[in-house]
Design a protein that fits this description.
mainly alpha, Serine Threonine Protein Phosphatase 5, Tetratricopeptide repeat, 0% strand
């Protein structure tokens, strides 16, 4: 199963839930339909293979994807709860499965999106699961645990409200790039953070991203990666525009 880039969820958790406005985008509607179909297929397999780690992984991921692409909090919460339940059952059988800890954190993050300020109570549990992922397999989902922890520490409120930390954010985002430099999302997150905290480092990091892009476009290609590139390309263009010399 291939992974797609994972959008961070924290800011959405602190705001009102996103709602659709106007006519739905055709590509977004197609992606939602695909996620729904994948969810139902994964659930059907899970119901007859409840002790299969590969099936658990596919279903937990499908729950996350469907939650991520819906505009309805009720659906998002339902999908998140299913994904959380799958991962917790999986961890009861196999407590050292990195992917189980990882997707437990991911589905908890989707649940946090439905809680507004109540998300603060879920943050520590998300952090715990991603730290467990790091201890077991730091490369899981192309350094996904470091990627998510970095963004969590970057965007969460600091002490005493929550766990936000500029230092930890920079450490984890840098480590994600070092662990899996082939993955564009890792570079994008670090560059966007450097614009805020270390502008002098941006140009060098951008060159590293440019260097891996040709191979990345071949490696991360096909329908499974379409939504990732639809996120990555605008972010890349924005970075390039900020680096362009003023006329």
């Amino acid at each position: 199963m291939s992974s797609r880039g994972l959008l961070w969820l924290w800011r959405a958790a602190l705001c009102a839930a996103l709602t659709a406005s106007g006519s739905p985008d055709r590509e977004a509607t197609r992606a939602q339909l695909a996620a729904e179909q994948a969810y139902h297929a994964a659930k059907a397999r899970y119901q007859t293979n409840i002790n299969n780690a590969a099936v658990d992984l596919t279903f937990a991921s499908a729950c996350f994807d469907r939650a991520d692409l819906t505009s309805q909090d009720s659906v998002r919460a339902s999908m998140a709860h299913e994904g959380i339940q799958v991962c917790r059952r999986w961890l009861q059988r196999a407590p050292n499965q990195a992917a189980a800890h990882y997707y437990l954190g991911m589905n908890l993050a989707q649940l946090a999106r439905t809680k507004s300020l109540g998300a603060l109570s879920i943050v520590k549990e998300m952090e715990k699961e991603w730290l467990a992922t790091l201890a077991l397999d730091a490369h899981c989902d192309y350094a996904g645990a470091d990627r998510n922890l970095g963004l969590l520490y970057r965007d969460a409120p600091g002490f005493p409200l929550s766990i936000g930390s500029r230092l930890k954010a920079e450490q984890h985002l840098q480590r994600a790039v070092e662990l899996n430099p082939e993955y564009p999302e890792n570079h994008l997150n670090l560059i966007e953070t450097d614009f805020k905290y270390k502008p002098s480092a941006v140009a060098g990091e951008h060159e590293k991203l440019r260097a891996i892009l040709p191979a990345a476009r071949k490696q991360f290609s096909g329908p499974a990666w379409q939504s990732s590139w639809e996120d990555w390309e605008p972010r890349l263009r924005k970075i390039q525009s900020r680096l362009a010399p003023a006329p």
